[in-house]
Structure formats: structure tokens, C-alpha cells
Amino acid sequence: MIFGNIFKRFWVSLSLLTLCGLVLCGCTERKDLETALYAVVLENLRAATEEDIDAYVDTMHSDAPTYQQTQQLTKQVFATHDLKYETHVFRYVEQDGDYAIARLEFSTTRIAGPEFKDNRLDTFHIFCKENGQWKIWSQVTLTVKYL
């Protein structure tokens, strides 16, 4: 009877340790993914602020539906405006296979160039893996607040 209780406690303890290990492993993977997605966003906004078209486009998935259109529009904006981009909120939402979603709030302010309405956007960014790297697939704007 004593050995039965000891054996039972051993298996309960081992089961709890295994469960904790699995939960912690999942948290680490989630945190790693969140960090990777946030790095893509930061590089995208850095490239936009510095008007580095090659680095900017490199953060985008080449098969994204708006890839060509965004590339052309970005070249026009870089040629006429000097803008500053700043992140305010970044929250990882979910992953499904090669796609992931994060919520991002960021502001865009004019430094120089023609008239521009400074704004703060609340968005969902959708990411997709390309050659093992996370890239921006698309963006859905939830709200725009003009500053």
C-alpha cells in the first residue's frame, strides 16, 4: 500500500512536469514567432522611414496580391514625401500553417514634402512564409485617426 501511494505520486509528479514542459515549450515557440513577426514589422517601418525601397520590398511576400501595386506606390511616396513611422502596439494574434496574424498600431507623420495628413492606424497584418522567412502578405486597416 505504501509503495502504491509512492508510485502513484511519482507518476502524478512526472505527468505534471511533462505537462509544464509542454506548456513552456509552446510559450517559447509563440514568443519566438511573435519576435520574428515584430522584427519584420520593425524592418518594414525602418526601411520606409529611410526610404530604402529594396529593404522595404524585401519585407513583403513576392506572391502577395498587392505586391506590384505596393512597390509602385511606395516609389512614388518616397519620391515626394519624407515620412516617419512609429510603432505603438504590436500583438501577435494567431498562426495557421504558413500564415500568421498580428495586430499593429503605428503612426505616420510628415517630416517634409507636400501636404500629408499625419495619422495613426490600427491594423491587422497578415504574414506568410516565403523560403522559410516571414514576410508581410497583406494589411487590413481597422481604424484611422488623423493627428
Provide a concise account of the structure shown.
Helices cover 46% and strands 37% of the residues.
Task: Provide keyphrases for this structure.
147 residues; alpha+beta; four-stranded antiparallel sheet; 46% helix
List the helices and strands and how they pair.
Blueprint: H1 2-49, H2 53-58, H3 67-80, E1 82-96, E2 99-112, E3 119-130, E4 133-146
Antiparallel strand pairs: 1-2, 2-3, 3-4
Number of strands: 4
Q: Tally the helices: what do you get?
A: 3
Distance between the termini: 73 Å
H/E series, N to C? HHHEEEE
Descriptive report:
There is one protein chain. This protein starts with a helix and ends with a strand. It is globular, with a radius of gyration of 22 Å. It has a four-stranded antiparallel sheet with strand order 1-2-3-4, covered by helices on one side. The protein is of the alpha+beta class and 147 residues long. It has helices at 2-49, 53-58, 67-80; strands at residues 82-96, 99-112, 119-130, 133-146. Strand 3 and strand 4 (133-146) form a beta hairpin. 46% of the residues lie in helices and 37% in strands. The protein is built from three helices and four strands; from the N terminus they run H-H-H-E-E-E-E. The longest helix has 48 residues, at 2-49.
